[in-house]
């Protein structure tokens, strides 16, 4: 996923700077570990400006997840197309993401782990994200009566690979295991 550097951020509105800063900090450090004061300081805004745009951290969390969803889905669809737009494009697409220096796993899995029990809206956004990701996967698969079920199985395998890649030294093992599963699920 493309990141916006410090120079480019200076030309953004205060709201956009706050949201992008929160995105980076929440994804890198975790939502609960990131305080509003850190977001304010890194975004270069005042508390008044922050609270004018985001009345609470809860509002910022929802906006962060919505923003992350839009960015990640656009990246996922585009990158799958760059790699051929078929099921075999999944492995090279994920390999790009897993090898990114900023990779910290799935923001939605991480957010549900942190806040799912305290913020039902986090769970709802994560469920929608996973549903839309599964729909994209289904579109990569050949038409069949099992297409939706196969897409759900592939999505589950992808989530497992994401988690594995998050804590392994290299993403290779996760990608090899996922490739093996995909070959079993989706014979040529």
List keywords for this structure.
single chain, 188 residues, mainly alpha, Tetracycline Repressor, domain 2, 10 helices, elongated
Might you state the CATH topology name?
Answer: Tetracycline Repressor, domain 2
Q: Indicate the CATH class.
A: Mainly Alpha
Count the DSSP helices.
Answer: 10
Q: Please indicate the count of domains.
A: 1
Which term fits the overall shape? elongated
Uncertain segments: none
Overall pLDDT level: 94
CATH architecture: Orthogonal Bundle
Query: Major β-sheet, in short?
Result: none
What is the gyration radius calculated from CA atoms?
18 Å
Proportion in helices? over 70%
Name the beta content range: under 5%
SS content category = mainly alpha
H-E string: HHHHHHHHHH
Q: What is the β-strand count? A: 0
CATH superfamily: Tetracycline Repressor, domain 2
Whole-Å distance between the termini? 30 Å
């Amino acid at each position: 996923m493309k990141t916006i550097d410090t120079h480019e951020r200076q030309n953004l509105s205060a709201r956009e700077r706050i949201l992008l800063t929160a995105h980076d900090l929440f994804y890198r450090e975790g939502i609960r570990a990131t305080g509003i004061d850190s977001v304010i300081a890194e975004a270069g805004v005042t508390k008044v400006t922050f609270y004018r745009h985001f009345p609470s951290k809860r509002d910022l969390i929802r906006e962060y997840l919505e923003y992350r969803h839009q960015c990640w889905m656009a990246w996922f669809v585009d990158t799958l197309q760059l790699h051929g737009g078929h099921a075999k494009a999944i492995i090279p697409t994920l390999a790009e993401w897993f090898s990114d220096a900023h990779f910290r796993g799935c923001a939605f899995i991480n957010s549900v782990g942190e806040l799912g029990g305290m913020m039902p809206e986090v769970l709802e956004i994560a469920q929608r994200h996973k549903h839309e990701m599964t729909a994209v996967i289904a579109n990569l698969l050949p038409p069949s009566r099992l297409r939706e079920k196969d897409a759900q199985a592939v999505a589950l395998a992808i989530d497992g690979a994401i988690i594995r890649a998050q804590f392994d030294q290299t993403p290779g093992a996760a990608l090899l295991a996922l490739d093996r599963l995909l070959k079993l699920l989706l014979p040529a």
